[in-house]
Amino acid sequence: MSFDPLAMLTAFGLIFLAELPDKTMFASLAMGTRMRPLYVWFGTSTAFIVHVALAVGAGSLIGLLPNVAVKLVSAALFAFGAVVLLRGGGDDDDEDAAGRTVTGFWPVYTTAFMAVFISEWGDLTQITTANLAATNGWLPTAIGSAAALMTVSALALIVGRFIAKKVPLKTVQRIGGACMGVLAVWTLVEAFTG
Fold it and tell me: Which among 41-50, 78-87, 114-123, 168-177 has the top mean pLDDT?
């Protein structure tokens, strides 16, 4: 198996756009205001890596199916992702902001890890990662997805307030949804022509 840098960049771009308006970005931002940001980032990053590993494993199993079946499943998952992003919730700002300040590496790390680990189950980014692993290979997908998730978490911790004030979340959701929709159509065409 050869490493495809384009597959890594595709995974990074899609996951980055899908994660920007996600509640875990806001959770990272909220935790960063009450806890040491670097400790929060370690916790969220570890949770993201675990979820990427699970998603890549699931995607690798999907990849064992016949090529047409994989393309159809992939197209359906991309279309699902487009619908989820384009419908956009707006209910992501109800994160629990109350609570006392947490200090110390392990309490902060554990809190951040558990917040992300629990909230990411069945999330759009996990589904997209599984989908990309099935079609683009597990290694470039894992690297691109993990890097995107960790980057979004870092952005939330460093410049989250700036992003929230300057870039409307609906715009980010629409761009991500349009990209997913294009990929759904592209994959569907590949299923019947390739």
Answer: 41-50
Q: Phi-psi bin for 188: left (phi > 0), alpha (psi -120 to 50), beta?
A: alpha
**Tens-digit pLDDT profile for residues 15-27:** 999 888 777 777 7
In terms of phi and psi (left: phi > 0; alpha: psi -120 to 50; beta: otherwise), the region of 122 is: left
Residue from 18, 185, 55, 27 nearest 116 by CA: 27
CB atoms under 10 Å from CB of 90, counted, come to 11
d(CA 76, CA 190): 13
Q: What is the CA radius of gyration of the chain?
A: 17
Question: Where do the H-state alpha helices sit in 35-137?
Answer: 37-62, 67-87, 105-119, 124-136
